[in-house]
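Whiteboard transcription, Tuesday session. T.W. wrote the structure tokens on the left side:
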């Protein structure tokens, strides 16, 4: 295939918005479409090579996979190896466990599958995942396991039939993406079936020259269409945001823009001259390594600091990612692509050994639960109360009736909400003797007492105290609920939110003697949510965590006097967190009175 410098220039148009978007620069909030443009470019280049080799009768599956290994693995392995010691040194157990999973999945080109499976309420925030971006490599390599086999099966087809096949497969994938982006957004974002259409658009652009007769575009039309293609990508970068479903029909804007540039930016057009100039071509040549380096740099900058990195730091890291990319391209990518310097046996042998090593290390980190002994002694490291299971154990109390509903003197508390409500139950279990208390937890109880029916009506009739605890997420019908509860002779309360700051990982690096009584600033979104909730719930029915626990103006403790973490993930409670926070929030309050004082409280 003849070298086209404007394709490398197009790579720079794809990678720079991705980097600047991930760095947090709002003007590039649509920069994620750069990945979509990369898919189109990749589909075009690989299909062009495969079609040329197939037509000449020299296609070899082994040679194809060798090229992919030379292109992808050396730089990827270097970046993964560079991440490992920093992650070991700077990540909390839960985060390090997630990193171990990513090592395994990335080595198997399946990080997209892992991210789809683990995305959800408990997942680590994306900005703290150093290998998050390798999901796109998973999509590409899964595509290239299947696509060469398809071409081999269809090698005798006429170009028109091949183009029709590409178009049909792309259309099916696009329809699945449009539907999936709304019905199953995580799966649609990460998985091959809903991404294949982007690669196939590049494949169709590669197959277009094979058609006879070919339409001949005038110079003016090529000029206009190539400019329109560049404008479509730029508009997408500057106007799209997280509200745009991806992939979906809207992503046709940047991907069609990429196709127009590939097809129409021929010599003599302004876009070809622009993209073929030295700076875009240079950035395009190092774009793969730049893509690999930028996310670890950004993620570890966030992991290692208690507050969000400044824009100036993120800009400096963006530049650093390009510098590291050049070194990576010059001393890793280029040498390994030279067949005279690195043999096929070395490529496949290195791929096997490297993959096995990373799978082994990642599997070990996973099995050891993120190696909590790095920061805790053995007795603390093995405590189940450090992990998510401590919160989820409250699902055992998701019952259809109070077991001791007929026992006199037992106060029955119905707690409705999400994981915040489960934390609230744990706080009670750690703060009070349970002989005269009974808790039932429901995550499906209606927000409005006037809507209660069936099993929920039974629970409402039996309950003495009703608590809504969803961190501000469920605050409909507050006035009506309070009036209905009073009329029925029941106490009702709303629990406020809680958040333990931007990041916790920095505690890992403190000497054990300095970990006691550390605190973090509460993030603005959590402060705003708490103030909004306070404005809707009367003080006599409000259970505030912040008011009782903060150690300064909007500063929350994150460790206790012994240096134990109060939260595993900045939002929920460890057992130490429930022990520390429960008494401080619940004792000497209207809520405790509603439980039927005098109660025998645990030692304060």
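and on the right, the sequence the group agreed on:
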């Amino acid at each position: 295939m003849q070298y086209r410098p404007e394709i490398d220039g197009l790579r720079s148009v794809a990678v720079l918005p991705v980097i600047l978007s991930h760095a947090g620069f709002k003007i590039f909030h649509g920069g994620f479409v750069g990945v979509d443009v990369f898919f189109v470019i990749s589909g075009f280049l690989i299909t062009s090579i495969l079609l040329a080799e197939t037509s000449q009768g020299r296609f070899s599956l082994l040679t194809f996979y060798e090229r992919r290994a030379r292109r992808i693995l050396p730089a990827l392995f270097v970046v993964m190896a560079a991440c490992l010691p920093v992650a070991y040194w700077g990540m909390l157990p839960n985060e390090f466990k997630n990193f171990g999973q990513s090592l395994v999945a990335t080595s198997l080109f399946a990080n997209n599958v892992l991210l789809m499976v683990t995305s959800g309420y408990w997942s680590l925030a994306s900005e703290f995942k150093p290998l998050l971006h390798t999901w796109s490599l998973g999509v590409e390599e899964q595509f290239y396991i299947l696509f060469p086999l398809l071409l081999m099966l269809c090698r005798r087809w006429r170009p028109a039939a091949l183009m029709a096949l590409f178009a049909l497969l792309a259309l099916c994938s696009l329809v699945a993406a449009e539907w999936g982006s709304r019905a199953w957004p995580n799966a649609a974002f990460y998985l091959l079936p809903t991404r294949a259409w982007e690669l196939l658009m590049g494949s169709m652009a590669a197959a277009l020259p094979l058609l006879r007769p070919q339409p001949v575009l005038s110079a003016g039309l090529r000029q206009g269409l190539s400019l329109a293609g560049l404008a479509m990508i730029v508009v997408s970068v500057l106007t799209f945001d997280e509200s745009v479903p991806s992939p979906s029909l809207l992503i046709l804007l940047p991907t069609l823009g990429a196709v127009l540039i590939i097809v129409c930016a021929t010599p003599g057009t302004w876009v070809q001259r622009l993209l073929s100039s030295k700076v875009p071509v240079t950035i395009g040549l190092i774009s793969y390594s730049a893509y690999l380096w930028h996310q670890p740099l950004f993620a570890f900058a966030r992991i290692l600091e208690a507050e969000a990195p400044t824009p100036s730091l993120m800009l400096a890291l963006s530049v650093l990612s390009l510098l590291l990319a050049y070194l990576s391209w010059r001393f890793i990518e280029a040498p390994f692509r030279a067949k005279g310097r690195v043999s096929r046996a070395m490529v496949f042998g290195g791929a096997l050994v490297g993959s096995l090593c990373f799978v082994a290390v990642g599997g070990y980190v996973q099995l050891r639960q993120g190696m909590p002994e790095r920061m805790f002694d053995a007795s603390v490291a093995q405590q189940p109360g450090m992990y998510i299971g401590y919160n989820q154990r409250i699902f055992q109390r998701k019952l259809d009736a109070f077991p001791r509903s007929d026992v006199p003197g037992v106060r029955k508390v119905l707690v409705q909400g999400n994981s915040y409500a489960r934390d609230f139950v744990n706080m009670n279990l750690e703060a009070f003797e349970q002989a005269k208390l009974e808790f039932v937890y429901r995550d499906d109880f209606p927000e409005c007492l006037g809507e209660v029916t069936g099993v929920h009506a039974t629970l409402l009739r039996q309950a003495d105290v009703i608590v809504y605890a969803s961190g501000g997420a469920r605050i409909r019908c507050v006035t009506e609920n309070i009036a209905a509860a009073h009329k029925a002779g029941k106490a009702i309360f709303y629990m406020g939110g809680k958040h333990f700051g931007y990041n916790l990982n920095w505690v890992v690096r403190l000497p054990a003697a300095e970990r006691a009584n550390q605190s973090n600033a509460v993030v603005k979104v959590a402060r705003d949510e708490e103030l909004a909730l306070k404005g809707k719930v009367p003080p006599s029915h409000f259970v505030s965590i912040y008011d009782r626990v903060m150690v300064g103006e909007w500063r929350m403790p994150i460790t206790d006097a012994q240096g134990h973490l109060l939260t595993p993930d900045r939002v929920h409670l460890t057992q130490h967190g429930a022990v520390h926070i429960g008494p401080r929030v619940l004792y000497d309050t209207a809520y405790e009175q509603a439980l039927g004082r005098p109660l025998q409280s645990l030692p304060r």
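Someone added at the bottom: The radius of gyration is 29 Å.
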